User: Fold this.
Amino acid sequence: MSQFLKDKAAIAGIGLTEFSKKSGVSELSLAAQATLAACEDAGLPPSEIDGFVSYTLDSTDEIELARTVGAGDLKLFTKVNYGGGAAVGTILHAVMAVATGVADNVICYRAMNGRSGQRMGQGISGQIVSSDLVHWSWYMPYGMLTPGSWIAMIANKYMHHHGVTAEDLGRVAISQRNYAQSNPRSFFHGKPLTMEDYLASKMIADPLRLYDFCQETDGGCAILVTSAERARDLQQKPAIIRGVVQASTRGQEQMTSYYRDELDSLPEMEMAAKLVYAQSGLGPDDINAACLYDAFTSEVIMQLESFGFCGRGEGKDMVRDGALDIDGRLPNNTHGGLLSEAYIHGMNSIAEGARLVRGTSTSQPKGVEHVLVSSGVGVPTGALILARD
Amino acid sequence: MAQSFRMKPPMGEDNGWWWQQAAEGNLAIQRCKACSTLRHPPRPMCGDCQSLEWDHVVASGRGTLDSFTVLHHPQFPGFDYPLIIILVKLEEGTRFTSQLINCSEDAVEFGMPVEMVMHEDPDGFRLPMFQPAQGAHA
Assistant:
C-alpha cells in the first residue's frame, strides 16, 4: 500500500446545516448552506473552491452547487457510488486531487431531504434494465425493499454465530444516545434511552428493532479538504488525513453480499482496515476514538472486529465492557452517530472525526491523537484516519 | 397472498432467461460451460475462468436455511406479514434468497431443511419460494 497520500492533505473546514425532519428548502439550498459554513469555518472564501465531490445518490450536481455558492473555476467534479459507502470515498478523491496538484480546495458534500423528500427503501421498478437494477431485482420481488431487510440477513447470522444478544445491540444504541444528550444538533437531544425502552421498541426486521435503525434526516454537511500546508495557515486546527482508502472485495454486492463464503464478517471492511493501517503506518492500538458507520447497531459491533480492536466474535464483549463510552477503550460516535444525531449518509460522522481531532466534540474524550472514520457497511466502503497535527 | 402489484424484475439479457425458467416451474442455476462452476445471481461472464459461454442446471429445490430475517415493518401492499425472508444454501452449493411459506415465525431455525415451492401470483407471475422440507431428506 502506497503511503503517497499520507499527511498530504487535511480537513480545514466543516459545515453543517440544521438537522430536521422537514427542512422546507431544496437539497441544493442545504448543500449551498453547508458549503458556505465549511468555507467560513476554515476562513476561506467560496471563490477559492475549485473542486466538488459528492455521492451518486446526491441530487445536487457539482456545477449547480458551484454556481449557487459562487465557487471559482472547477478543476475537479466527481461523484462516488454506493450510498453511504461513498462517505470517506469522497475524501479520498479530494485528497488524491489535492496531493497531485489537480485541485487546491475541494468541498465534499452530502445534502438530503432524507425524511421530507426521497426516503430510503422506496423500491426500484420500471422498464429500464441496468446491471444495478437487475441486482436489486433478486430481492425486491420478495418484499425486500428496505436497507433494514437487507442488513438483517447478515446481522441475524452474525448474532446467531457469535452469541450476540438483543441487549448487546441495545448497548450500542444507548451508548450513542447518551452522547446525543450533550449534542444540541442531535435529533434525540433531551431524549435518553433505557434498555427497557430499547427492548420494548417495535421489531422492524428481526433481529433489528426501531432503535437499531438510524435517523431519516433533512440536512446537509460539507467538508473542506486542502493541503496540510495550506490548512495550517487557515483558522482551524487542521485534521491531518493520515490515511484514506476505498475497499470492495470479491463477490461484493450492494447491501446483499449473501453469496460469499462467510456471512458473519465484513470482508470489505477488513480490507479497508488493512489498507488504511498500512497507508497510515498505524494500527488499532493507535486509534483513540472512532466514528464507525452506524446505519444499524449491529454494524458497529461487527466493525470492532473488522478493524482489529478485538478478535472474531469478541465485538459483543467490548460493547459489554463499555468500550464505546466516553471513558472506554474506543469512544465511538461521540456526536450520537447516524443513530442519534442525524443521518447525513456518514458525512456528519466525518465532521465529528474532525471535531474529535480539534478537541471540540460535545463529548470530547481525553487525549485524542487519531480518529478512525468508516463508510457504509455491507457496500463497497472505505476508511479514514484523521490525526492531530 | 401477494397480488399483481409485486415489484417485477426488469428483464434483461443477463437475467430474463432465469425468470423464463421460473415461469416454466424451474429453479435454475447458471453454469459456466468452460469450467462448470455454478453461479448465482447470473452474470454474463464466469468470474473464475472468464468464459462467456454458459448454460444452466435445474436445481433439485432442496436446501438448508443459512440465514433469515422476519420482516414486520414497513408493510408493503400485497405481502403477508410477518414476512419470512430466507437465504437458502441449495443442495447444488449456491445460495438463493427467497421467502419461506407454510411455516410460522416461531418455527424458523438456522440450518433447517427446506424445499422449493413454485409460487404463482394471480397475474400468473411465478417465483420460487420455499417451505419446511416434507420429504425423506428432512
About this structure: The domain at 9-118+213-388 of chain A is CATH 3.40.47.10 (Peroxisomal Thiolase; Chain A, domain 1). The first helix of chain A runs from residue 27 to 42. The interface with chain B takes residues 121, 123-131, 133-135, 137-146, 149, 152-157, 160, 202-208, 250, 256, 258-259, 263 of chain A (CB under 8 Å).
